[in-house]
Amino acid sequence: MPWLSYQKALNRALADAMAADDTVFVLGEDVRVAASNVTVGLAKRFGPDRVLDTPLSEQGFTSFATGAALAGMRPVIEFQIPALLFLSFEQITNHAHKFSLMTGGQCRVPVTYVVPGSGSRTGWAGQHSDHPYSLFAHVGIKTVVPATPSDAYGLLRSAVQDPDPVVVFAPSAALGVREDVDFATLAPVPLGSGRVHRRGADVTVVAVGHHVQDAVAVADDLADTVSVEVFDPRTVYPFDWDGLTESVRRTGRLVVIDDSNRTCGIAGEVIATMVERVRLAAPPVRVTRPDGAVLPFSLELDRATQPSRAQLAAAVTLTVKER
Amino acid sequence: MTVSTSDSLSLYRMVRLIRRFEERAIELVHSGDIVGGIHPYIGQEAVAAGVCAALAPEDVITSTHRGHGHVLAKGADPARMLAELTGRVTGLNKGRGGSMHAADFGIGVLGANAIVGAAGAIATGAAWARQRLGTPVVAASFFGDGAVNEGVLLEAFNLAALWRVPVLFVCENNGYATTMRVADAVAGSITGRATAFGIPASVVDGQDPEAVLAEAATAVARARAGGGPSFLECRTQRFEAHHTFEHKVRLRYRTDEELAEIRSRDPLDVQGARIAGTDRCGVDDEVESVLDQAVAFALESPFPDPLTAMDHLYASGLTPRAGSDL
Lengths: 323, 326
Prior knowledge:
By secondary structure, chain A is of the alpha/beta class.
């Protein structure tokens, strides 16, 4: 079977979405030349009208997309860097997100916001390395963080077809992941459905985005001593609470690895919800960025600020000790 | 452009409808039937009436926190509008929007938006999309003088001019952003913000419905002909408070003399003088009857069921988790 990279999966999803629906168009900065690689070939195939290069006016073109969506189109905005979500946070949360309720259901705002390269990009420092998916989950915007190429394809397809705003975080650390996949099997993945990457009996590790690869590696490393189940929520909002509950009921133990800042990160919500639903055999543990983290430039500091495999292994070991 | 007698009468009718709607709404604020107060449009009626008279039914508008006049002038049912203001399930937004968010997509009202300057880019995107979809319309985006210092609005001017989007930017310059005078807030000029982007801009007497209609009609014709955006600065006057909270807390930012001057030129009189006295009386009676029925409809309508508080949060029908399981 052919190899599909995560980045190519996003590109293929956009191309298939545009081919399937004339109202889908892409807008953003440098999307015609595909500076971030995700829109490669789209301008040539679909023409400049459907691949719209915008001036550096993130707030303006984000609400422009909201207007286009209200008028019946399905815009896909590419934000080159995650911090642009802070710049356009008002337009996404206060307008695009609120229109459906505020109008009593008179309209829909099917805009997709794609960030191909969220989280640390290794050396891009304080203002280009954020991973604010928990922020969007907090305000109630549909938020997906795919971990694998086939999920990146399937979740982006679902995001574009969804009638509501959806933010798609494509972690930088996952963009290079490749998967041996039969292209004929690529299909939309419903929002709000998690996926168990590895079955286990002793502890459930919830891993978000690129940390799925870390969790699977740690599970392999510890396989002789502990049986780890790796649960990938895929969508952090809405979260597949029933799927996770089923897993945690079986294992009785819970560890979360999440590239959010610690306070109000999705890890805290995962733990709170499982504690409400399941009597755990040991205190749950989370591995996150520090509170209020700003990623420092120097590589050692950048790495020290993000959740690591060593921290995850220690967390798993600690949790199963409490038998 | 010449305004026909029937246009004169219908402009008067709209000014009168908005005026009396607002006065009735203020009564309902004082009686406690409208919770949260309103931003009265009294004094500025000529702008909404004139601009919306230049639009076709399929054209779209975006409105503001001081938006009742725009929504009514675009054709909203005053009864369902008042039901919205009183939080009833029969309201335009099923009681989910209120005074600052009234929307009626069926007649092209893409929502009143309570964030100053925020809707300009939305209107621009909507008009651009309708062009792309092969069903072109003109969008009119209303905002106040305070909005011209909001960056996102200036970004919208740039996008609209760059892509020749058929949008009419309507600045209602009533002299004050809440209590901040234009002279204390605006460096350069208001129209200069538009002309800097190559957008044709003009200053209009915002107390005169026919003057507004004439200028808006020129801009709308230009937009339909592919000429892109236009900008109207309508010099108008806010006779009332910024918000009805001022009826309880008197803010001292306009002297009595200034207020008298502000109220000296009333669009109701300007337009009323253009029609026959008998016609005027007839319209006044008709408006009163419409509003009597509207108030009765609103106050007799049911409130929404609290169990439906999060209905419509997602168009997909996704049900969010409740705030308490108990």
